[in-house]
Structure formats: structure tokens, C-alpha cells
């Protein structure tokens, strides 16, 4: 049975339902733990919402809203890592990105978490690492990153990137990257007080859009293809203020 998942700097302890690094530790509930384990078992693969709901709440009917809340919690938990990203694939589901996911097997371990009011067996440890830092964190660091020089704060922006102002909305993009018209108009129409990041992977042709809500401090990352722009535009416009 799988007892550990290792990848970069995160340790996922299935028994204690915690995710930790050298300096930080955060906890998950039972259903979130099942979700994270499923995402790790299928690292770098897109999982549909129904598959995730079945994995996180076995034999129970749950809403998309419940799944979304748990996904947001997992994102907050794995944010303690320097190399973690849980992506939203518009119209499909979610994908956990890992540079390298490795499993360690122990003969007498169990790989499934148990509810905390149940008696534990000698169990598994799980480690996880999710590679590819959130583009929202990149945008936040590029927009807001400061360094202390004596008593002054000096703003820093990577010279390969630029900040575009779209009707009061700040968008971080790499120089020369064109923002398609549907996405451009959706950002302008969004009522959210957000920071936006827009990028494109030249190898895959996919677009990477991240939204950081300054009020709630939550972020949403979208990995989309051009055909998904209309649906993405709706989600950006409906982004909560």
C-alpha cells in the first residue's frame, strides 16, 4: 500500500491529516484529505468535478459549491510550499501540478485516512510536492514585492513583465503577450477588485490566467485553450467582488 508521496518540500501525513513543510504545518478535514490523496494519485492529470466529488465524499451526494470550498481550503493549505499549484481547468475540473511525484510503499500501512472519531490502525504517511508555483503568487510578488534598503521600501518588477491598466484593473503579462479580446473585455467588465496575470505556454498553446482577490486574499488559476474563452469570460465577469 502507498504510504508516502514525496515531491519537493511538502509532507502530507494521511494519519494526522496534515500538510507540512520544515517550518509550517496545516490541517485538513477527512473529506479534504481524501480529495488531496486523489489529486496526488493523479498528479499532472485533469480530474473532473464528479470524479473528485465521488473520491472526496464516497456514497454521498454533494454540490459543486462543497467541492469548490474544499478545493479552496486545499489551495490555502498547500500555499505553505514554494512550489505548489492546483489549477482550475475551465469546464472540466482541476489538476494538481507536480514536478515529480514519488510513492513509498510500506507493507503494513494503510493509504486511506480515517475519520478522527474512529480508532486508528498503524498507518500511512504521505508526502506530497506540487511543482509549478502559482502564477498568482508570481503576479503578487511582481506587483507587490518589496525589499528593505535601510529605511526605504523599494518596489521591484521583473523587467520581462509589464503591468497593463485596463479600466482600473491591473494585469501582469510578459512583454509581447497579447490578451485575446474576449478575455480583455471580461477583465474590464469584472466587478472584482483583483490582480490579474495572463500568460501563454508556447509549447502547449494553452493560456494561463490567474486572479487574485485583494479583499478575500484568495486566488483562482485557470488553464485554458482558446475554445474555452467564452466560458472563461463568464467566470471572470462573475468573479465575486
Structural commentary:
- The chain is an alpha+beta fold.
- The chain folds into 2 domains: 2-105, Arc Repressor Mutant, subunit A (Orthogonal Bundle), CATH 1.10.10; 135-237, no CATH class.
- It is 26% helix and 30% strand.
- The protein contains 6 helices and 15 strands.
- The chain has a 5-stranded mixed sheet, sandwiched between helices. Strands 2-3-4 form a 3-stranded antiparallel sheet, with no helix packed on it.
- Strand 2 (11-13) and strand 3 (18-20) form a beta hairpin.
- The longest helix has 15 residues, at 64-78.
- It is globular and about 50 Å long.
- It starts with a strand and ends with a helix.
- The relative contact order is 0.16.
- The model is unreliable at 116-156 (pLDDT under 50).
What percentage of the residues does DSSP assign to strands (E)?
25-35%
What is the CATH level 1 assignment of the largest domain? Mainly Alpha
H/E element order: EEEEHEHHEEEHEEEEHEEEH
Number of domains: 2
Cα Rg:
19 Å
E-strand count: 15
Structural class: alpha+beta
Uncertain segments: 116-156
Alpha-carbon distance between the termini?
45 Å
Shape: globular
Brief digest:
The chain is α+β, with helices and mostly antiparallel strands and 241 residues long. It is built from six helices and 15 strands.
Compile the SSE list and pairings.
Elements: E1 2-6, E2 11-13, E3 18-20, E4 25-27, H1 30-41, E5 46-48, H2 49-56, H3 64-78, E6 85-89, E7 93-97, E8 102-105, H4 135-144, E9 146-149, E10 152-155, E11 161-166, E12 169-174, H5 181-189, E13 194-200, E14 207-213, E15 218-224, H6 229-237
Parallel strand pairs: 12-13
Antiparallel strand pairs: 1-8, 2-3, 3-4, 5-7, 6-7, 9-10, 11-12, 13-14, 14-15
GO molecular function: DNA binding
Pfam families: Trans_reg_C
DNA-binding region: 2-98
Amino acid at each position: 500500500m502507498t504510504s508516502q508521496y514525496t515531491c519537493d518540500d511538502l509532507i502530507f501525513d494521511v494519519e494526522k491529516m496534515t500538510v507540512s513543510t520544515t517550518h509550517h504545518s496545516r490541517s485538513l478535514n477527512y473529506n479534504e484529505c481524501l480529495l488531496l490523496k486523489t489529486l496526488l494519485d493523479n498528479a499532472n492529470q485533469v480530474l473532473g468535478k464528479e470524479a473528485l466529488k465521488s473520491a472526496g465524499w464516497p456514497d454521498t451526494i454533494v454540490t459543486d459549491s462543497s467541492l469548490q470550498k474544499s478545493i479552496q481550503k486545499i489551495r490555502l493549505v498547500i500555499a505553505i510550499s514554494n512550489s505548489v499549484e492546483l489549477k482550475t481547468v475551465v469546464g472540466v475540473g482541476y489538476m494538481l501540478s507536480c514536478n515529480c511525484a514519488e510513492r513509498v510503499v510500506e507493507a503494513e500501512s494503510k493509504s486511506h485516512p480515517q475519520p478522527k472519531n474512529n480508532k486508528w490502525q498503524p498507518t500511512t504517511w504521505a508526502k506530497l510536492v506540487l511543482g509549478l508555483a502559482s502564477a498568482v503568487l508570481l503576479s503578487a510578488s511582481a506587483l507587490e514585492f518589496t525589499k528593505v534598503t535601510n529605511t526605504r521600501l523599494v518596489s521591484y518588477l521583473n523587467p520581462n513583465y509589464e503591468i497593463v491598466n485596463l479600466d482600473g484593473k491591473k494585469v501582469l503579462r510578459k512583454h509581447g503577450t497579447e490578451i485575446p479580446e474576449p478575455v480583455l473585455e471580461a477583465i474590464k467588465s469584472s466587478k472584482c477588485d483583483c490582480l490579474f496575470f495572463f500568460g501563454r505556454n508556447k509549447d502547449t498553446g494553452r493560456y494561463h490566467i490567474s486572479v487574485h482577490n485583494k479583499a478575500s486574499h484568495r486566488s483562482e488559476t485557470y488553464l485554458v485553450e482558446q475554445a474555452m474563452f467564452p466560458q472563461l469570460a463568464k467566470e471572470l465577469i462573475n468573479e465575486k467582488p
